Amino acid sequence: MAVASPPVRRRIDRLERIWAERPGVLGWLTTVDHKRIGLLYFWTTLVFFAAGGAEALAMRTQLSQPEEKAIGPATYDQLMTMHGVTMIFFFIIPMTTGAFGNYLVPLMIGARDMAFPRVNALSYWIFLGSGIFIYSSFLIHSAPDAGWFDYVPLALKRYDGGLNIDFYALGLIFNAVSSTVASVNMIVTIFRLRAPGMSWNRMPLFCFAMLAASLSLLLALPALVLDCVFLELQRKVGFHFFDVAHGGSPLLWQHLFWFFGHPEVYIIVLPAFGIATSIIPTFARRKMVAFPLVAMAELLVAFIGFGVWAHHMFATGISSSVLVLFGAASMMVVIPSTIQVYAWLVTVNLGTPIFRAPLLFIGGFITFFVLGGLSGIMFAAIPLDQATTDTYFVVAHFHFIIFGAAVFPLLGGIYYWFPKVTGRMYDERLAIASFWVTFVGTALTFFPMHIVGLLGMTRRVYTYQHGLGWGIYNLLETIGGYILAAGLLMIAGNIAWSMRRGIPSGRDPFNGGTLEWATSSPPPHYNFAVIPTVRSAYPNWDEEDRENDLLRLEDDELVLSTGHETPLSTVNDAALDRVAEMPPESPWPIVVAFAVSIAFALVLTTHYVAAAAFFAAAVAAVGAWNLNEPEEA
Amino acid sequence: MTTSAATTYDLGHARPNGWWAMVLFVAGETTLFLMLFATYFYLRLQSRHWPPPGVDKPAVLVPSLLTAALVATSFAMQRAWRNGRLLNRVAALRWLALAGIVQGGYLIWQVHDFVDACHKEPPSHSAYSSIHLTMLAIDHLHVFLGILLTAWLLMRFATRITPYRLRTLQATAFYWHAVNVITVVVLLVDLSPHVG
Amino acid sequence: MTPLSRHGRLLPALGLVVLLAGCGGNENTLDPHSRAEGKITQIFWVVFGFSAFGFGVVVFLLFLGWWRRSKETLPFGGGEKAATGLVVGAGVALPIVLLVALFVYADLFAMKATGAPPRGSAQLTIDVTGHQFWWEVRYEGTSAVTANEIHVPTNTRVAIVTHTADVIHSFWIPELNRKMDMIPGQSNRVLIDATKPGVYAGHCAEFCGLQHAHMVVLVFAQPRAAFDRWLARESKPVSGSPPPEFTTKGCADCHQVRGTQAKGHVGPDLTHFASRTTLGAARLTNTRTNVAEWLRDPQGVKPGNKMPDLGLSNADVQTLTSYLESLR
User: Fold this and answer.
1) B170 with B81: CB under 8 angstroms?
2) What average pLDDT does this structure show over A152-174?
3) Which value does ipTM take for this structure?
4) Residue A14 CB-half CA count within 13 A
5) What is the pLDDT of residue C32?
6) CA angle A94, B25, B189 (to 5 degrees)
7) Hey, are the CB atoms on C83 and A381 less than 8 Å from each other?
8) N or C: where does chain C have the smaller number of CB atoms within 10 Å of the terminal CB?
């Protein structure tokens, strides 16, 4: 764009002016820019990741040898519960859908923002509020302590009388509000804001993954919310849902929890699949093999994920005919994953791959995902599940899935999109070194857990006796944990250093195929000076089209420089429907989130009338927000 | 859509984003209610007596009539949306007001009966009372949210019509259709002890 | 109590031997001492074998991608079409065949083989009730009540019926069979059919609170004759009355000693306390010193367990210890 003509200059200046936001801290508080919100999500979830990691290291230290006394049982139970809750609800979900999804989806589909920019800000501020809410429990040494799946009756008032479980239940309801509005926003964005020409078969696989994860989240969360509502009604007001004496059922909690909890697994790994399917084509320098099959597999896995919840309850005494059905469904769920694994492997083999850090992380991801997936198949064999469930064998399995398969792509993705977000390159040599340290650390931390689980070590023990033969494995795991932490710190160091000192990366350092690489790095507030045309699934590789963008900028075709606007497309074939005005920055989302946060704190402390007043204030703030009426949303 | 450009706004051919968002929100709420119904029957399966001895089966006549009245407001909401679409502000306002009055009356009556029921068989009495009253309360909350939306639209349409307000009306009309369907199912589940 | 060298023999495959060489628990899932657990171990090794092969293929393909990184064809020739075929073949067809086979083998046949004996068909039924944080054991058809240590005859199909007195626990003897949760209002059944005499341990497998880590159960499998003798003695009440401290210091409020006035039902039955090898759900071995330590400071030994500090004097502790150790 160095040779821009005066009219083009004027248009771009106008776009700059229209899309600019308030400077300074205030600008961050009222922002509706999906990229800034994505960054807020990124840094916040990174802090929660550090907290969850510190909890894990504390636990590993306590378990490093038999009868260790570093941490007592009460503290250990809080650390273990908060580690799970943090990593799932305050790190992975907000990191994938919130940070990566928010930042990248509008760029990949050629839009100027999310469908509902203010709702987007709201989901972030509510997420932050819920995180502070649940973490404040540590201040009064009352963090949730009944495990992340919080089984009743242990979680009932009779056995857990403090505020611990109330923090859990209310915190998760609070957090679910954020995730629900975020998923609705994501789905509508993908439905309506795709650049003209991006029909379903041309949409990046990353967006398919985000769509599938958002749909799952939207339809799975109500089960968790309802479960937590039941729990709070029983704990605080004396209802009976879970106690047998009054006709309740403790298994009701488990059914509702796992109806959410299994789709949750796919909510966690699907975005990771999406990242893998973004990185692999770029570095293999060819498009994904079996593209439609992979897209279908991503949607299918989210769907089947709703039919397998009872495999978390194989040892609860459910009749074996029911178990067998769930066993069969659990085996079916393997197929979409094997499709994707082979699609990735074959793509790498069919292309001419360059093994830079992002692709290395994807290699690590595939290795660990297959490892965790294969041990997962063992849980579909019911008698074997009943032998190994609730032991460290399970802990090993799901950490290979959640850490190996979900976090590794995130780490690779951080490197991959780092130049896009900052305009600077990360340090490649340090990145490769950090990969190997992280890889070795992960393997060493989680692999021995298989063995120690088979040797009878059950989950959630704060210590174990001498003479069981568990000590050596636990010691190895602890050493692995510290190596892993070192690897993660190397990544953090690389980011911190490269943000200031990295060499400028230019628009597209890796020659990526999707649209985020078509704009400058970092992208301007309005993302694209001209809404790009799309004629394939890898539009950035359609050089003719990208050159055409410059001509279209000259011709003022879909530049939309007269207002705060983005084009809307039809849902199916992405034909241009019309141009919609987008809302400007707004202080109301943070006000609403603040009122809701106070209200939740008041419910926690049983000040119901005051809580109702703050909920009413939140509703009033939503009204005030809607006094500003952009043409759309 | 054959309305001419002079009598309405250009809202495009595809459904607006707000409508999609409402459909998705309703889809999530539908799961919530499906889980409530599942819980209801799961707990019923565990119990010998449903409702437990000493608790009356829920009344049939009044809740059914009330629900019928509520369902009728779907028609009013649809009329309001059709008139709004044609920029017939006053007519839209009238239909909205009619719907709002019936919805408000429904809720007041229901809340009154609900408080009554809470005194007769407090939710702490049994699992039956807990799920029965929770299910009703969550349904009433959805009606309440709908009434807030209706009230908001009444306020906004009192001055003038904008595309933004029209879309709110379209989404709200859809919301009410969904809530009405859900309320009918809630009523059927609630009355299920009368059969079998 | 643990034979140290068991595992080397039972994990012959794939270098795991080396990893497992130094260990000496008796809770090894892959060291079966019953027909049921034998079946489970077999499933494990079968799935493990296929998994190791599948994992090998994936890692091989990854390395192949790296090795031939400048070639634009598949290793064995062919382009896009062959590649898609490979994805469908290896990613859909092959797994379907393998999974159906596994389903039939594990979820249909092995389910039956490892399942609990239906009501009435068991040769012996034992009710085990989980408490925070110990196990209550009752032998159906006798008055025997004990805690934390279950005696069973070998080569007998024993049905363990699981209950709970409070929260959810899970009963699991890794070397004998799959685990079974203990859920309020529900009684689940699991089969124990030990083939060899021995002591088999298990930890509570469902998180149940502060002392979940120290909720251990021991199964003593013994020949039929020895078991019958044990059960006969265990069924009898004791003769002689406890020292006054047993009542005045509160022991009798929570514990039962059959044949005396002590009829508490909160803590473990102490009738034949001295015949047990451990105390506090295997927290300590049952020696005079340990019993005294437990009585002096139960919350120090097992923080969070339901036995309060009784504020006993040294003399009280000595008297009570002597009494408990006399309950053979």
Assistant:
1) yes
2) 96
3) 0.95
4) 15
5) 94
6) 120
7) no
8) C
